[in-house]
């Protein structure tokens, strides 16, 4: 590195054209064992899609019957708050642990082990009381967290010429799985007359994904690999912290919505089955936004305006739930779903605010490990405030404050410069 190249850790610079989202790189996360990748077959694409479809139902299925579960177990609002915070806590830890697991065991075994954990956790959590539900959810979310980190690595390494297509399939399956979990669990609980059977049935989807993954995932040697670039710490870089806080605030709001929206709607007079369907509609917005927004954002010099616009639309949904929740609950849900479209933009920003794959990996790891830990406080505080006040007013005001702060950091993160 020349003297001209060196800069202080806190500096940022005006962006030159950065790596395009989905641009092929040798090892975008810097975590794959040197010289190996998975064979990019059609069957592996199906395996990736089915694995992705398992990464949200553990959260959305429970959210859609949360009050029923809490009442049945005689648990407190604090218990429910801790339960909704578990996914974000696990996802934050995965930013540190998943790369180490993969370096030791490889992609095939690491993701297979993650699916096994997910399946076991979904089955365990319906066997007994509140502590078992917490423990089983923790195990399931640990598996989900590893899958969150490693499945995109499979896409970028095994399908370098079809990253856009396979990423679209991945994101569609991710959002679709979450929507199905929210929509089907309440009527399934009614049909089976048992929320335990309804929630436990999602372990069958996990088992199917595990069996397919074992069949589809095969390692092969990588030829012509570029030499790895040295990674630098970004913990003293101002822009890196802006992006990380944007990630954390957006994730906080997303996990509040996925964890608590059905309960807010039920208290507004919506029946439980419909509330689950509304959460499914909210989650499904991830499909079109995931396909359409990243290509649009890459063509824009600054993503700030688009980020702020989507954030404010989501804020309007929260205002509606606060001021007149029973007046138009579907409209408020749709607005909240549009606001969650910030997530694909956030993933795009992680690539556009860096110039080298090694820096992209460092920024992504920092944003996920710290951002998800920030996010974990949202669902917990949201539920605690509901338990303390007896209504959702203070909880929704908290989300609106976070939304305003997210708009500020999102605007800053969208400006055309790099770490």
Structure in words:
The chain has 419 residues and is mostly helical. The chain folds into two domains: 37-224, MFS general substrate transporter like domains (Growth Hormone, Chain: A, Up-down Bundle), CATH 1.20.1250; 236-419, Growth Hormone, Chain: A, CATH 1.20.1250.20. It is built from 16 helices and four strands. The protein has helices at 42-53, 57-64, 66-73, 77-124, 130-158, 163-192, 195-200, 202-216, 238-267, 272-284, 286-299, 304-323, 329-339, 342-352, 357-389, 393-413, and strands at 13-14, 36-38, 219-221, 417-418. Strands 1-4 form a two-stranded antiparallel sheet. A two-stranded antiparallel sheet has the order 2-3. The protein is globular. Residues 1-12 and 14-30 have low confidence and may be disordered.
Notable traits:
Growth Hormone, Chain: A; two-stranded antiparallel ribbon; 16 helices; 419 residues; 2 domains; mainly alpha
Helix content range: over 70%
Low-confidence parts: 1-12, 14-30
Number of E-state strands: 4
CATH topology of the largest domain: Growth Hormone, Chain: A
Q: What would you report as the Rg, rounded to the nearest angstrom?
A: 21 Å
**N-to-C order of helices and strands:** EEHHHHHHHHEHHHHHHHHE
What structural class do the secondary elements suggest? mainly alpha
Provide the CATH architecture of the largest domain: Up-down Bundle
CATH superfamily of the largest domain: MFS general substrate transporter like domains
Shape: globular
What is the name of the CATH class of the largest domain? Mainly Alpha
Terminal residue distance = 16 Å
Order of strands side by side in the largest beta sheet? Answer: 1-4
Mean pLDDT: 85
How much β-strand is present in the residues?
A: under 5%
Q: Report the total helices.
A: 16
Q: Biggest sheet, in brief?
A: 2 strands, antiparallel
